[in-house]
Amino acid sequence: xxxxxxxxxxxxxxxxxxxxxxxxxxxxxxxxxxxxxxxxxxxxxxxxxxxxxxxxxxxxxxxxxxxxxxxxxxxxxxxxxxxxxxxxxxxxxxxxxxxxxxxxxxxxxxxxxxxxxxxxxxxxxxxxxxxxxxxxxxxxxxxxxxxxxxxxxxxxxxxxxxxxxxxxxxxxxxxxxxxxxxxxxxxxxxxxxxxxxxxxxxxxxxxxxxxxxxxxxxxxxxxxxxxxxxxxxxxxxxxxxxxxxxxxxxxxxxxxxxxxxxxxxxxxxxxxxxxxxxxxxxxxxxxxxxxxxxxxxxxxxxxxxxxxxxxxxxxxxxxxxxxxxxxxxxxxxxxxxxxxxxxxxxxxxxxxxxxxxxxxxxxxxxxxxxxxxxxxxxxxxxxxxxxxxxxxxxxxxxxxxxxxxxxxxxxxxxxxxxxxxxxxxxxxxxxxxxxxxxx
Length: 439
Prior knowledge:
14 helices, alpha+beta, five-stranded antiparallel β-sheet, globular
């Protein structure tokens, strides 16, 4: 699932294939010292620098024509401090490896996103999140981090050490430096019971506040062209463990969610008129189920169907209005949408450019299968999201610029000032960073 440069012509592509770049050179440092050297050499040669994880962003946030840093040798757990409830990991560690390694040690993150292919630094730098009433994004669980800044020096920060950098660098968009290690808060491993069940759209929207309040982790998928949703509630459980059976798991997670879904996408692309019918069938195919397992096996699932995605955070209080407008827009537009809309939440946090910075948030994500023209749908959706001061996910498709973002992020100026101080020559800039943060 990771992105790779093709080697032949040195072109790097992201996971969904909608972004390509041709770096002047690639560096795969085996140590923090080698990474710092690479940054210093880039400065001598007048080249920009970007680090890339697994290429799971749909924006060009990691693209560069300068030096591309690949962190795959900077992986693994550096230190576990059980007394403090902390684990320090190298920046290139995939979330999957972190989750599995923590589980072996009887530990877990409190919350995570719905896939785990990304590196820890890529996931946190773009604001990757799951859903939670009290627990926020992966970045909100950071207790400390270490980064190489533009002059090649190593800076460590936490709430006590360089707190101004800590406030911003947890979701730093790669604009403040290159992260080399992250310290996460962890806790003894626990069990989650997941309850998945279909529910009418009108009921979910009417009861949203209650569903949110009664569950530690609530999310749902709405199937456009239908009045159907599939809801998921995850809550801590005393056990016993009751994982999804292997056959049932294969049938529901692989066959239905990936296999049949992929075929439905192909049919939908070939014959768009069939999409509403397919959507009705798809929305009925998933039946209710309940299972209990360790966190990463409940929070995350494989995503084999390649897609392109836009996601906005809106104030949580506005989510039902936004969803009703989205449904009306799809109904009137003549668009044929074959991919469900995903809805999640996060509590307000104190990270400067977090999509949940200073406000309780709801996330609404729209997707289309890779290769489908997505501009008309995403543009119409974005118009609705921005009317509610929506904040785009940094790693997903959007058209916003620094002027708009400064208006929806109260601490935008604070981030800009820190960037001026840490990267005055814009060593870590690329076209995307220039667009969203300004030159």
